[in-house]
Amino acid sequence: MNDYDDIIDHPHYEPKRHPRMSMHNRAAQFAPFAALTGYDAAINETARLTDTQLELEEYDNQRLQDILMRLAAQVAKRPAITVIYFKPDERKAGGAYHTLTGNLKTIDEATHSLVMTDGTRIPLGSVLDLEEAN
Question: Is the pTM of this model over 0.90?
Answer without folding.
Answer: no
